[in-house]
Amino acid sequence: MLPSNTPLYNHPLPQIEQWLKNQGCEQDETQLHCWHIQRSSWEAELWLDTEQITVRYLQAGESNQDIQRSFKYSLSREDIQEAVFAGP
Q1: How far apart (Å, rounded) are the C-alpha atoms in residues 10 and 25?
Q2: In which order are the strands placed within the sheet that holds 52-57?
Q3: Is the separation of the CB atoms in 79 and 73 below 8 Å?
Q4: Spatial separation of the C-alpha atoms in residues 16 and 65, rounded to whole Å
Q5: Cα–Cα dist 63/53, whole Å
Q6: Of 78, 57, 60, 59, whose CA–CA distance to 70 is shortest?
């Protein structure tokens, strides 16, 4: 498990990928930087971009519009985890 108070950019990619798997995310087989997660009340796509994690909650907004948010890798693993996996 990644230390909770360490910025995400301090961890190698394999550790970040394992952390996402531990959260229930599934990696896209063709676009390896893309991930998908489904919870009982929401689902989302995540992208590991160059400088941030981008999450798009599918059909979560008004009129079933997607909600997209981005989180810099300078945030701690705990902050990103709480923000992303709490849902839209």
Answers
A1: 21
A2: 26-27, 34-38, 43-48, 52-57, 67-72
A3: no
A4: 28
A5: 25
A6: 57
**Which structure tokens are listed for 25?**
């995310």
Q: b vs e for 15-39, b when ≥16 Cβ sit within 10 Å of the residue's Cβ?
A: ebbebbeeeebebeeeeeebbebee
Place of tokens 């689902």: 43
pTM: 0.88
Convert the pLDDT of each residue in 26-38 to its tens digit.
999 999 999 999 9
For position 36, what pLDDT does the model report?
98
CB neighbourhood size of 74 (10 A): 13
